[in-house]
Amino acid sequence: MPELPEVEALALDLRGRLVDRAITRVDLAAFSALKTFDPPLQALHGTLVEDVTRHGKFLDITASGLHLVVHLARAGWIRWKEEVPALPARPNSKSPLAARVVIDDTSGLDITEAGTKKSLALYVVRDPSDVEGIARLGPDPLDDAFTIDVLREILEREGRKQIKGVLRMQSLIAGIGNAYSDELLHAARLSPFKPANSLDDTELQTLYDAVKGVLGDAVERSRGLAASELKGEKKSNLAVHGRTGQPCPVCGDTVREVSFADSSLQYCPTCQTGGKPLADRRLSKLLK
C-alpha cells in the first residue's frame, strides 16, 4: 500500500511532469472508482494543471481551481506513459486500469489497481476538504507543527489501545500505514501491542525520533525517483515489514509475523518484545 513517503514522491514526480500542462481528457475505466458527481469528471477537460500535492495518503492534482484527488488504497498505483492510446479507455473487468489522464502532447498517466478487491477512489472536488477522508485527517507527521507534545497528547487520549493501531489511524496521524507503522515501532524498539498511553518519557522521545527519522529518510530516498522506481525503493529499505522469516538487520534474530483477517504485522522479538514471540491469533486458532 502506498504510504506517506511514496505518495510524497509521486506528487513531486508528477508536479514536474504536469504543472502548466493542459489536461486533454480523463477516461474512466472503472466506474466504481469515481466517488463524486459534481463537478463532473468532464469538468477537468481543458483545464491547466497548477500543482500536485499530498494530503496524508491522498494525491491532489489541482487544475484550474478544481482538484482531482486520488486515494490509491491497498493495491493502486500511478504509471506515467510517454504516449497514451488515441482512443479513450473503455471499461474492462480484466484490466487493472481505473482511469487515464491524457495531457496535451498525448502523454499521460494511468491510474491502476491490481487484484479483485477494488478500493481505489477518485474524487473531483472544488476544495480538498470536500473529500471526507481528507477533512478528518490528523496532523501530518512531517509537518513542523507535529511536535513531541502533539504525539504525547494523541497517545494519552487513545488510552490502552495498541500503539500499532493508533499509528495507523488516519484521523489521528496522517499518512502512516501498515508498513511504516511496523518500521517505526521496530526503530523505536516497541512492541506493536504496547498500550498507547503506557510509554515513559524515554520511549516517547525514541518513538518521536523514529517518526521524524524513518519517514523523513524514506522521503529523501524517494525524492527525484520516477513512479516506476518507488515500489522497489520502498521494499529494499524495509527492516521488518514484509520480511517474515528473514534476519533482523539490527540484531540478527528472525523476523516474526502476527496475522489478522485481512492484514499482518511483522516485528523482531529481540528488538521489540524482550525476546518473546507474540501470539499469532490465526495460528492459535488452527492449533485448537
Topology summary:
Elements: H1 4-18, E1 23-28, E2 49-55, E3 58-63, E4 66-71, E5 76-81, E6 97-103, E7 108-113, E8 121-125, H2 132-135, H3 148-157, H4 163-168, H5 178-188, H6 201-222, H7 227-236, E9 256-259, E10 264-267, H8 269-272, H9 281-287
Antiparallel strand pairs: 1-6, 2-3, 3-4, 4-8, 5-7, 6-7, 9-10
Radius of gyration: 20 Å
Strand adjacency order, main sheet: 1-6-7-5
Mean pLDDT over the residues = 93
Quaternary structure classification: single chain
**Series of secondary-structure elements, N-terminal to C-terminal:** HEEEEEEEEHHHHHHEEHH
The rough form would be described as: elongated
Note the beta-strand portion.
15-25%
Structural class: alpha+beta
Domain Formamidopyrimidine-DNA glycosylase catalytic: 2-120
InterPro entries: FPG_cat (IPR012319), FPG_N (IPR035937), H2TH_FPG (IPR015886), Ribosomal_uS13-like_H2TH (IPR010979), Znf_DNA_glyclase/AP_lyase (IPR000214), Znf_FPG/IleRS (IPR010663)
GO molecular function: 8-oxo-7,8-dihydroguanine DNA N-glycosylase activity; damaged DNA binding; DNA-(apurinic or apyrimidinic site) endonuclease activity; lyase activity; zinc ion binding
Pfam family, one: H2TH
Describe what this molecule looks like in 3D.
One of its GO terms (molecular function) is zinc ion binding. Keywords: DNA damage, DNA repair, DNA-binding, Endonuclease, Glycosidase, Hydrolase, Lyase, Metal-binding, Multifunctional enzyme, Nuclease, Zinc, Zinc-finger. Residues 2-120 form the Formamidopyrimidine-DNA glycosylase catalytic domain. This is Endonuclease VIII. By secondary structure, the chain is of the alpha+beta class. It has two domains: 4-135, MutM-like, N-terminal (N-terminal domain of MutM-like DNA repair proteins, Alpha-Beta Barrel), CATH 3.20.190; 148-287, Helicase, Ruva Protein, domain 3. The protein is built from nine helices and ten strands. Strands 1-6-7-5 form a four-stranded antiparallel β-sheet, with no helix packed on it. Helix 1 (4-18) runs antiparallel to helix 7 (227-236). It is elongated.
